[in-house]
Each structure stands twice: as C-alpha cells, then as structure tokens.
C-alpha cells in the first residue's frame, strides 16, 4: 500500500532498519531528525551570515557615495551658507539619480543616512535634508511601512516620520496610541505629541488602558523635551478623565509646568474616593506651594490613610508657611509611626525660618530615636 | 593654520565638521574615543589650538578629556558638542572648564563662528 520506490543503494539501510528491534528503530529515527535539524540550523546561520556580508559589501560601496552627495548638495550648498530659506533652494538631484534607488535596500540606506545627518545638523541644512527626503520620494516607503501588519516596521516608520518631521494624519496615529503592543503604543504616543501641531495631547482623551509607570516616564521625557508644542491646561483631564493613570500623570505635568490655574481642579480631587489619587493631588498641591490649602489638609489629616498623611506632612513642609509648626511638632512627638515622625521632622526643618526655636527645644529634650530622626532630617546632604 | 582635534565616536559628525571648517584655515585631526584622544594628545605634546569633543564616548568620556586638558600648564580651549540635554551635564562641563557648549544637532555656521571666536580669544 505504501510502497515508495527507493534507490537501490539505500536497500541495505532500509533492510537493517526493518530488521532492527523497535528501540533501535526509534533511536535511528531520532538520530536522523537531530542531524537534519542541525544541518538546517547551520545552513540558516550560514545563509544569514552570507546575506549580512553581502549587505555590508553593498553598503560599504554605497554609503560613502550617499555621504558625499549629501555633503556636496546640502552642507556645501552656497545658498545654505548665504542664509537662503530652505524652501527657496532648488536641489540638484542628478547625483542621487545615479544611486540604485530603484532597489529597496538602497532607498532604506539613503533614508537612514539622511536621518543620521539630520540628527547632527539643524537649521537651514536640516530643513534641506527634509526637503531632499521628500523630493527623493522616500516618504512613500515609510508610508508603506506604516501599513505593514508587523509592529516593528510601524515603529520604524513612526520614528522616521518623527526624525524627518513629516506630518501624519491623526486617524493614522491615534488608533496606534492604544495598541496592545507596548513598543508600538509608546512610539505612536511619541509621534502624536511630536507631529500633531494642533492638539498633541488629544490621545489623553482616547487612552483606555492605564498608563504604566514606564510609559509615564517616557511620555514625561517626550513632552518636556519636545520644542514648539503648545502646553494645554492639564486641569481639563484632571476634571473630566475617567482614566486614573491619566489624572495622576497630569498632576505631575501640572507640577512640572507650575500651572497655578489648575489648582482649583486639583483641590477638588481631594474629595476623590481613590486614596492613591488623593495622595498624588496632595503631593501636587505641596509642590505647587499653595498656602491656602494648608488648613484643609490639616483638618482632613486624621481621617486619611497613612500614604495621604505622609503626603500632607510633606506638603506642609514644601509650602513652608510657618503656620503649622505646632501641628508638625505634635505629629513628631506623638505619632507612633516612624514614617510619619520622619516626614514631620523633615517638614519642621523646612519651616526652620520660624521653627528654629522649636527645633532647638526638640533637640535638647529628645530621646535617642527622636534625636536620630532630627539629625538625619537636618543633614543637608541627605535628601530622603 | 590652527590645529583642531575632534573627538567624536559618531560616523557622520567628523565628515560634517571637516566640511564646515575650511581646510585652508584649519588642520583637523579626528579620533573616535577618549583613549585615542589621550594617545594623540600625548604624542603631539598637547599641540592643538582647540579641542572639539563629544561627552559620551567609549573608554574615556568628554569630561575626562576636559579635566586632563585643563590640568596642563597651557590649557587648550575645549568646545563640547553633545546631544546631552541634561542641564547637570552641561553645568558639569562648564565647571570642569569647558569654553563652550553646542547641543546636537548643530547649526553649521554657529560651530564655525564659535571656533573662530575661541581661537581669536586665545591667540
């Protein structure tokens, strides 16, 4: 039934196989499979190394040519030196037409090189590099990559658009800001903030998943280092967003941009049931140094969980109005929690412009542990 | 002709700087890390009029080069060209004696002007 014709020279092999006991047959099959897989692996490594070598050879030949063309056409362009605006300079693309730009790898190499140059020069030359990228129609390749189903290609395309400052429609990027893939999500948010000139923070409205701590760090870096973006009043998301991580993140941005008009919205957040968010709001008010809120914080102190109590003590220290010295002294002396005592001592030290007498009194009468806390907090070299 | 040492591990930047600084006025030597920079400086007996250096490089960073150069009897003016936007790093550079700081990406004409200004000042 399964009579497969085999070459005659393999007959002894097959007859040995047929006559062997079952264990030996299984071992033989296992050996054959192992050898085949090993050979396949070696072949695949060899193939990829050969392709890498070929690619390197091609790039070694092409990259100096691209560099020379870019230097001659952009950096050495007399009109750039004369200060002519980039949009009025007519680029001579004849040299670039001699490159094998009909091949995908050559186009990608040219794009990478232009981006590399743009990371090193700006001003008129940087604008001209962007113009070169557009005139060589390299942005079309990047647009194609955006439509790819592979996330890594989309990330690369987004990075290219950011580097070349090419505007992309909101409808293309916005859905990606909620992608399940972490890398793609971060790249899309980055791109949206950098490329959307009108509403770079619109994705705060559509973000459904929590912003992870690492996402927040990345976003904070992007927002605070991007030039020429209009910073909105973050109170808008404090008031309306149902995503707690967005609210928490906006509180950090309010502090960074010292947005005092957002204070009423932050004060309203003191009534929230989520005590993590409440602690963030107290932290924000402290860092904004809002003196009017001190009495409210002191009055709510006893009903708060530990995290909020610590933040209240720290906030009073940051505001440093000098009106709550007695409260801080009482917490330092009578609290049973070490963290609360430490926060109270630190805040007393920050209020030392009115509390120096109280501090001296505490130093004179303190027991061993209290003295240790006070000396720790008074040491200017220790931050925490 | 002024002798300039460029310490830069980026592949493109030396080509850009070489293009910005005309060969008729400047003799540019390039090394790609701190270790090579020290070797070059020792072998030429610190015979450069200006050093342009990046901060983050392999073997020895820009700050190490800066502190070594500034401890010489005849300190060579140093321009830091880096993409480090961190204020602390910039301040650290100036504390160590950097004469100028340029953030990447640079404006070519600005680099040329600053090089000229420093060389004039130290003549």
TrEMBL record, chain A:
Membrane-traversing stretches: 22-46
Gene3D superfamilies: Leucine-rich Repeat Variant (1.25.10.10)
Name by which UniProt lists this protein: HEAT repeat-containing protein
Entry keyword set: Membrane, Transmembrane, Transmembrane helix
Domain of life: Bacteria
Organism, as annotated: Chitinophaga arvensicola
UniProtKB/TrEMBL annotation, chain B:
Keyword Phosphoprotein among record annotations: yes
Pfam family, one: Response_reg
Endpoints of the signal sequence: none
InterPro entries reported for this sequence: Bact_response_regulator, CheY-like_superfamily, Sig_transdc_resp-reg_receiver
GO biological process: phosphorelay signal transduction system
Residue numbers of 4-aspartylphosphate PTMs: 54
Superkingdom of the source species: Bacteria
Name of the molecule in the record: Response regulator receiver domain-containing protein
Species: Chitinophaga arvensicola
């Amino acid at each position: 039934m399964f009579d497969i014709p085999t070459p005659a020279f393999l007959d002894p092999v097959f007859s040995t196989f047929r006559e062997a006991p079952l264990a030996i047959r299984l071992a033989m099959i296992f050996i054959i499979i192992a050898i085949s897989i090993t050979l396949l692996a070696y072949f695949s490594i060899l193939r990829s190394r050969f392709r890498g070598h070929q690619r390197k050879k091609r790039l070694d030949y092409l990259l100096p040519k691209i560099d020379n063309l870019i230097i001659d056409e952009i950096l050495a362009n007399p009109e750039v030196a004369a200060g002519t605006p980039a949009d009025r300079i007519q680029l001579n693309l004849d040299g670039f037409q001699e490159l094998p730009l009909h091949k995908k790898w050559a186009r990608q190499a040219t794009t990478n090189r232009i981006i590399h140059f743009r990371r090193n020069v700006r001003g008129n030359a940087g604008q001209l590099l962007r113009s070169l990228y557009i005139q060589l129609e390299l942005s079309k390749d990047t647009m194609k990559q955006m439509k790819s189903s592979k996330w890594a290609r989309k990330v690369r395309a987004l990075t290219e658009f950011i580097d070349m400052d090419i505007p992309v429609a909101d409808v293309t990027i916005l859905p990606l800001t909620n992608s399940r893939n972490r890398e793609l999500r971060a790249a899309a948010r980055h791109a949206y903030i950098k490329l959307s000139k009108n509403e770079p923070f619109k994705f705060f409205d559509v973000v459904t998943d929590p912003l992870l701590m690492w996402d927040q760090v990345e976003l904070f870096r992007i927002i605070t280092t991007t030039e020429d973006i209009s910073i909105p009043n973050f109170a808008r998301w404090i008031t309306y967003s149902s995503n707690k991580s967005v609210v928490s993140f906006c509180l950090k941005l309010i502090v960074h941009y010292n947005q005092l008009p957002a204070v009423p919205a932050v004060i309203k957040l003191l009534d929230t049931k989520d005590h993590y968010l409440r602690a963030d709001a107290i932290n924000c008010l402290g860092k904004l140094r809002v003196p009017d809120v001190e009495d409210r914080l002191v009055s709510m102190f006893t009903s708060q969980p530990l995290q909020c109590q610590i933040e209240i003590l720290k906030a009073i220290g940051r505001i440093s109005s000098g009106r709550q010295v007695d409260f801080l002294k009482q917490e330092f002396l009578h609290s049973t929690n070490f963290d609360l005592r430490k926060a109270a001592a630190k805040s007393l030290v920050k209020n030392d412009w009115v509390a120096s007498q109280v501090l001296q009194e505490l130093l004179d009468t303190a027991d061993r542990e209290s003295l240790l806390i006070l000396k720790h907090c008074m040491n200017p070299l220790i931050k925490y | 002709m002024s002798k300039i040492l460029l310490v830069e591990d980026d592949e493109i930047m030396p080509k850009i700087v070489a293009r910005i600084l005309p060969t008729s006025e400047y003799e540019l030597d390039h090394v790609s890390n701190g270790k090579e920079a020290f070797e070059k400086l020792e072998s030429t007996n610190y015979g450069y009029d200006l050093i342009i250096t990046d901060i983050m490089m392999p073997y020895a960073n820009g700050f190490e080069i800066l502190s070594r150069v500034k401890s010489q009897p005849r300190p060579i003016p140093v321009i830091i060209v880096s993409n480090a936007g961190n204020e602390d790093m910039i301040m650290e550079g100036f504390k160590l004696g950097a004469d100028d700081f340029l953030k990447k990406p640079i404006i070519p004409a600005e680099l040329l002007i600053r090089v000229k200004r420093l060389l004039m000042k130290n003549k």
